[in-house]
Hints:
Blueprint: E1 2-7, H1 14-25, E2 29-33, H2 62-73, E3 78-81, E4 94-97, E5 102-106, H3 114-119, E6 122-127, H4 130-144, H5 149-168, E7 177-180, H6 185-197
Parallel strand pairs: 1-5, 1-6, 2-5, 6-7
Antiparallel strand pairs: 3-4
Amino acid sequence: MKILALIGGSGSGKSTVLDGLREHFEDRAAVLSLDNYYRPKSELPVDENGQTNFDLPVVIDDGTMVSDIDVLRLGKSIHLSTYTYNRDVMKSEIVTIDPREWLIVEGLFAMAYPAMEERVDMVGYIDASPETRLARRIARDGTERGYTEEEVRYQWKHHVRPADIQFIEPWKIKADVVIDNENDWKSGLKHLIEKMENA
Length: 199
């Protein structure tokens, strides 16, 4: 099993690219989302204003995630609960992930842990400007997660952008493929698929 880490800042378009990979690889690829490894909200760090900060690597239970990846590498299935963003608008469910030719690990901090650097075969980085990503996040979080625009802008300024700069953007120059999702993401997706097929 080969592993692709699909990373990019919030609102960069990971879901769009992921859909393209799913369409191409179909049952040859399994997807593991870091969102499903968030620690309980009561364990997450808070900022100086008492607001929960979801945008630090420590919020992910990386030990369990890496353990699950190792189980998949051994050819065994895993079972996990989907994450609900601690809001009432979504309900958790149990999902089963089976080992496939490719495992796509998708999430903000997929490359923020040393154990992942040892396991990942390829890194795909999705790029878009901060302005574009903020606009997308306002639209998404209002619709899907029940946040107000004020809440989204607060998180963006105090949590999201600092995490981008420290933990995510340094991977742009180290990634195997950079997908420009400001303009033509389809050509970047094609390049990534070609690289995966030839790996």
